[in-house]
Fold this sequence. Notes:
The chain is an all-alpha fold. The protein has 13 helices and no strands. It is globular and about 60 Å long.
Amino acid sequence: MTFGLITIVLGGGAVIGLVSWFGVQSIGHEVLQAGWVIPLTTVLLLLQLYVSAVAWRIAVGEARPRVGRYFRIRWIREAVNSLLPVAQLGGNIVGIRMLVQRGVPGPLAGAGTTLDLTIEAVTQFLFTLAGFAVLAAVAAHSDAWAPWVTWALATMALGLAGFILAQRAGLMRIIEWLASRLNGVFPALSVAAVRGLHQELIRLHQDRTALAKATGLHLLAWILGVAETWITLTAMGRPTSLAEAFVIESLGMAARSAGFVVPGALGVQEAGFIVVCDLFAIPAETAIALSMVKRARELLVGVPGLVLWQWSEGRRLLQRGQATGPGVRTPRA
């Protein structure tokens, strides 16, 4: 928690510093100019979450709960990861817990969510790779940035390959072993919730049809962000081609993902957009304004997501309290 608070302070300070350096008035003017598109970009974000929820459900391979509930849980998962200092991990744990509460077996919920995160990371790599390919086709002087792009893509590819190989080699068995050891110290910890995690993950890996469908849906979710960037820049009076919007969105989101330890990638996202937009002679103040519009719709979706999460938890506690109220004997664990 202390580390999270430190990163919030540093990231928030970086955002304030960038806005102050490049001009509060000019950035504010561009944000206000594009303010009318925020409801539209909010709808696009919700559509991305819905598509991602369908992909998650396919990855888990469980008919229950319904897609609508997967969407609500995916919404909460995104809100927790984006707005709370949990280093992009807390939302996934919350999502697994909520799936288990709704009848999905623990090992399946954990394995399916791990697979969904893997597919999301792989598709982002493909999206980023496509962004660099488009950049090479439309931008001049590629010799200046080609070397570091090669190293960056190679590093991403090796990291993903290592993560996938670790899953196949038995990474989940380590979690099962840790849970069995911790159960002796924390008896309330359910070992059954993770027993068989490795087998479930390997089984899900073998369903090639489900993998292909989930991959296609996650790619669609990433591509929907291109429309958001294109619409926002056009509203700011900085019309770009779809190819340029594709590059800005893909590389900007790659920069955001690189700053996963900072809540909301504060400062990292802004710096990434400044660098990428500069490739197309788009001023830094416009790049920061683009990031601010994205953050506005993120708040419009994220804050209700956190409220929905707390409401869901509160209702469950109330139901549990009613079930164990006066006259009802609570069974021993």
